[in-house]
Design brief:
Shape: globular
Largest sheet: 2 strands, parallel
Strand order of the largest sheet: 1-2
Distance between the termini: 37 Å
Order of helices and strands: HHHEHHEH
Number of helices: 6
Helix content: 40-55%
């Protein structure tokens, strides 16, 4: 990506499997984890939930099955022009703004039965954080 070339599935799958292993390790030790990545395709999210078995069988395990992780995906949604404006302001980031269109072209927004919420990036940062916290900790009073 740093060279201006979009990643393909072959580039992403080993990395996503490694991320799944990290999440599995944290889960096994009783730790909660927050992972930020662009899991643009449904298959990528399946790999995060089920690991390499999601690639091998192309049939994901459902959350609640023995090896599937319970993950809440947060889909940060917004118009390309707003996200492009934010990318232009980044300094020292590995992804050049020229790749944004390829990211939008690749995107398969989450849908049922995936465990996800969609949050608009047009909200303020405190509103975005509160919406995510409310989804993670439903019914709890959260401090400002």
């Amino acid at each position: 990506m740093a060279e201006g070339i979009p990643l393909n599935d072959e580039d992403r799958i080993p990395w996503l499997c490694a991320l799944h292993d990290i999440l599995r390790r944290e889960d096994s030790s009783g730790q909660d984890a927050i992972l930020a990545c662009s899991a643009l395709k449904k298959m990528y999210r399946r790999v995060l939930v089920s690991g390499a078995s999601a690639v091998e069988s192309n049939q994901p395990e459902q959350p609640g099955e023995s090896t599937a992780l319970k993950i809440l995906f947060v889909h940060l949604d917004g118009p390309i022009n707003i996200i492009a404006g934010r990318l232009e302001k980044r300094r020292g980031h590995f992804m050049p703004p020229e790749l944004l269109k390829s990211q939008f072209d690749t995107l398969e927004p989450p849908s049922a039965p995936e465990n996800f919420i969609t949050v608009s990036v047009e909200k303020s940062l405190p509103e975005i954080v509160l919406e995510i916290e409310s989804a993670i900790f439903p019914g709890e009073a959260l401090l400002d």
